[in-house]
Fold this sequence. Notes:
The chain is α+β, with helices and mostly antiparallel strands. Helix content is 26%, strand content 26%.
Amino acid sequence: MSEKRIIRRHAHRFLWYACAESSKGRLLVVMSERGAVDVILGETRSGMLSEALRRFADTSFLPDGGRHAEWVAAIVKRLELPKLGGVVIPVDLGSEYSSREAG
Length: 103
C-alpha cells in the first residue's frame, strides 16, 4: 500500500505516524497532538500502516517527519529497558482515539 493512499479522506481528522527500530523489532507509533495513541509491532512499514488503517478506519494518517521524535525515542527506550524509571511518554487518554479498542 502506497503512503499516498494512507493520507486520505477527512483532513480535519488525522493522526501522525512514525516508524522506528528496536531490539524487539520494527514498530509504528501512532500519535495525536496530545500523545501516543497506539504502538504497532510488525515486519513491514506497509503492513503496520495497514493495521493502523484497520484500527482507525475513519482517520487520515500523516508522516510525522520528526515532529514527535522525542516521544518515539521514549517509547523505544521503554521497550528496550522496561524497568527503567524516568522515561516520560505522553499518552492520549482524553480524545476520541483513546476510547477505541486496539484490536
